């Protein structure tokens, strides 16, 4: 039943966000795998639209935060306000106290603001003064970055990037999809409505997460995940070229993320077991923000996706 509802939501998202299947599947994978995602791509690729569309399909609150250089941590977490009539301080919750949060252009805010958001993502709570406040049990953050404009930005350190379950990289749609986008825009201007599926309740989301955790992962698949991770840490065992490209490998969070995302993908595709293609499909989005390229790789114009593709090619499939 949960899979059928999720399939309806996936079809709705694909109608609302044309030409971005990676984004649609990434959103649902993050929702089922209980993690947060970072989306990088040029402006106008429906990143905000996708999260709003997903929010329409879930029985929860949505809030968008536009990150700017003058943003303060209290603008996210909330703050204590003095009530003169009672003579006491009262906590006023900030925009993080929503179920789905869009952190738009996260790299435009200074480090303190980024840290406040990442604490919320990692701990499921925020701290104001001496007190901590729990966030909603269903809490999903989608952060965006614009790769075109880097002036006035504060890049996230690798240690903070590691907190994101997935890092999606988007590109422009092709000509055929662009025509479909024009048609969709005309239909919306004429108030043609695409029917929204019945929203998922929190209980249904948690039930889907439990079902995904029960997807069978064979010991050979576990070893395959570990082998992919170890290839980033000990690349010389596999290939001299790979060793020259990689400066730093991934953390144990990558192993956990590969397993959770592979299970979620298998669940979304209607299988009760994890196949090698599930691990290979999620590997780029899981590893992209966790590996650190060497100076040689950057000088040669080698991308992280090329490195990940080489790792997947070199590591033997069980």
TrEMBL record:
InterPro entries: ATPase_AAA-3, CbbQ/NirQ/NorQ/GpvN, ChlI/MoxR_AAA_lid, P-loop_NTPase. Residues 36-166 form the ATPase AAA-3 domain. Residues 246-311 form the ChlI/MoxR AAA lid domain. It comes from the Bacteria. PANTHER family: MAGNESIUM-CHELATASE SUBUNIT CHLD, MOXR FAMILY PROTEIN. This is MoxR family ATPase. It comes from Ferrimonas pelagia.
């Amino acid at each position: 039943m949960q899979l059928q509802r999720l399939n309806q939501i996936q079809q709705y998202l694909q109608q609302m966000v044309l030409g971005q299947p990676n984004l649609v599947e990434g959103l649902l994978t993050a929702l089922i795998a209980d993690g947060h995602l970072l989306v990088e791509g040029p402006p106008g690729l429906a990143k905000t639209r996708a999260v709003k569309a997903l929010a329409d399909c879930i029985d929860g609150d949505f809030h968008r935060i536009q990150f700017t250089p003058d943003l303060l941590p209290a603008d996210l977490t909330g703050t204590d306000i003095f009530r003169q009539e009672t003579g006491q301080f009262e906590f006023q919750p900030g925009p993080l106290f929503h179920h789905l949060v869009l952190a738009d252009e996260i790299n435009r805010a200074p480090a303190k603001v980024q840290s406040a958001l990442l604490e919320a993502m990692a701990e499921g709570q925020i701290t104001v003064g001496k007190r901590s406040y729990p966030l909603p049990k269903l809490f999903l953050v989608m952060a965006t970055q614009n790769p075109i404009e880097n002036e006035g930005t504060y890049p996230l350190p690798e240690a903070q990037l590691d907190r994101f379950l997935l890092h999606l990289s988007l590109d422009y749609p092709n000509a055929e999809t662009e025509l479909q986008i024009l048609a969709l825009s005309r239909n919306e201007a004429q108030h043609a409505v695409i029917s929204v599926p019945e929203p998922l309740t929190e209980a249904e989301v948690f039930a889907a997460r439990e079902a995904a955790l029960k997807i069978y992962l064979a010991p050979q698949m576990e070893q395959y995940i570990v082998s992919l991770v170890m290839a980033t840490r000990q690349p010389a065992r596999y290939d001299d070229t790979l060793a020259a490209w990689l400066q730093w490998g991934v953390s144990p969070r990558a192993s956990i993320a590969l397993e959770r995302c592979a299970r979620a993908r298998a669940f979304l595709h209607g299988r009760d077991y994890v196949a090698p293609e599930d691990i290979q499909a999620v590997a780029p989005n899981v590893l992209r923000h966790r590996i650190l390229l060497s100076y040689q790789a950057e000088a040669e114009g080698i991308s992280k996706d090329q490195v990940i593709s080489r790792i997947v090619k070199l590591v033997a499939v069980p």
